[in-house]
Design goal:
The chain folds into two domains: 174 residues, Aconitase, domain 4 (Alpha-Beta Barrel), CATH 3.20.19.10; 29 residues. The model has no long low-confidence stretch (mean pLDDT 91). It is α/β, with parallel strands linked by helices. Strand 6 and strand 7 form a beta hairpin.
Length: 213
């Protein structure tokens, strides 16, 4: 997993509350077993006018030219509610979103973001509304996220604003080091290999048949 230290990117505003995982990535696209290829289906029912995803909806925010190549999403409360499908953060990440800012998140979605190298940031609604206003009033509005210092900085405005956010130390350490669940396990590879060796030596009779197979 790619380490997350700082990120600077264009922001897209999604003024919708209670966006559930079926809206983020509809169920008909969950047949893939790999994590890639979901970005094209992100917000499919809002983003396209047809079922095949060939005709973009000109009224949906992601299709606005000014938000092309956005990598930061700012949205309303309870983002990622609904089912626990990990495909939702997969779709956002595959599209190019690395940071999501909202007043609140659904718990499972929130934790799944960290497992995939994304940073979900919880801010008070008053601050989120200020960021909405900043983004909508500045074409190409950009934010700079500094995870180490836990700050969000507006880049385009004359009166630069800096917001601070909270994040628990475990999630922060994992993102800074690029540790997913596998990475966390591999930190203890020497201990694991030592245990396996000792276990096989002690219970050799359990493995003798495997060697002769």
């Amino acid at each position: 997993m790619k380490p997350f230290t700082t990120h600077k990117g264009i922001v897209v505003p999604l003024r919708r509350a209670n966006v559930d995982t079926d809206q983020i990535i509809p169920k008909q696209f969950l047949k893939k077993v790999e994590r890639t290829g979901f970005g094209v289906h992100l917000f499919h029912d809002w983003r396209y006018l047809d079922k095949e995803g060939k005709i973009p909806n000109p009224e949906f925010i992601l299709n606005f030219e000014r938000y092309k190549n956005a990598s930061i999403l700012v949205t309303e409360e309870n983002f990622g509610c609904g089912s626990s499908r990990e495909h939702a953060p997969w779709a956002l990440l595959d599209y190019g979103i690395r940071v999501i800012i909202a007043p609140s998140f659904a718990d499972i979605f929130y934790n799944n973001c960290f497992k995939n190298g994304m940073l979900p940031i919880v801010l008070p609604k008053t601050y989120v509304d200020e960021i909405f206003e900043y983004v909508e009033n500045h074409i190409g509005a950009t934010l700079e996220i500094d995870l180490n210092h836990q700050t969000i900085t507006t880049v385009n405005s004359k009166d630069q604003k800096v917001y601070t956010f909270e994040i628990d130390s475990f999630h922060k350490e994992c993102l800074l080091n690029g540790w997913d669940d596998i990475g966390l396990t591999l930190r203890h590879l020497d201990i694991i290999q030592k245990f396996e060796k000792q276990y096989q030596e002690k219970f050799y009779f359990l493995f003798s048949g495997l060697k002769n197979a």
